[in-house]
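Need tokens for this chain, all 128 residues.
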Amino acid sequence: QVQLVESGGGLIQAGGSLRLSCVASGRDFSRSPMGWFRQAPGKEREFVAGVSWSSVSTAYVDSVKGRFTISKNNVKNTVYLQMNSLKPEETAVYYCAAKEWASDSRQTYSASSQYDYWGQGTQVTVSS
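Here are the structure tokens for all 128 residues:
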């Protein structure tokens, strides 16, 4: 059974940092591009960051560039999201996602429909 389990969320003051982790299990994810999305109350789920299965390529939504870093450890089947200088408007449930397989080691994906597996989400609350 495939599972993605996020952790690392919590309550943080504006300007602070959090590191989210997502452990994938149930199959081999070494050829799986992965990503992070977030959904704030009353809003649609949005792409935050993506990483190719080789970790050669990364992609970010413009609003987090320079502050967030996505990374992937294929040995541990884990993807991370380091979030610095957090803002109150980034309060949301953060989800990790995995695409089943990709032939291109450099390809990242930003559409939720391109991912096959999802975690249950972890709440990030940024206070002002």
